[in-house]
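S1.2 Input.
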Amino acid sequence: MNSVVSIILITILFKVSVPFIQWLLIDSVWSGTAADCRQAEGACLAFIREKSTFILFGFYPRELLWRPITTVILFIAMVWYSKEPKRWNSRLLWRWAKFLLLAALLMRGGMFGFEAVEIEKWGGLPLTLMLAFFGIIFSYPMGILLALGRRSHMPIIKSSCVIYIELIRGVPLISLLFMASVMMPFFLPA
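S1.3 Output.
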């Protein structure tokens, strides 16, 4: 029975992957204009190459792109440095604090001769890394507190933790951020 299921799944995978590879790599348009993309039957990869800076950095000013690039490189270096358990001490916390201040200075600017960039212009990879970092940093201790609160014998704490967990747990962070940034202003006075 396992062999039959494997053969069926491999056949389905082959039937799906061959046309997808044909569309993505063989019939795709690697360079050209929008008119070239409309005439082709494959993917429009010229668009991705043309808009790659926007995809990676959003509306960040093009002449200042070295700042988010440096921030991303430093962030990856800090994560790489922090992965060793022997480095998990108070000095690592101070290094992360210094890095976060440097990242805020690089991204926001406005001090030490750096031109200020509004937060609304941030986007792409640097913003995704920052949201993921702060989401993990704040969600882990909050999750522990909520788990402890759920096991509490005090009815008010237990019920409030259960309500929060059941309402928020299944909602992705990006949906909450979208609601907070786009929908909340509709409900608040001008």
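S1.4 Remarks. The chain has a mean pLDDT of 90.
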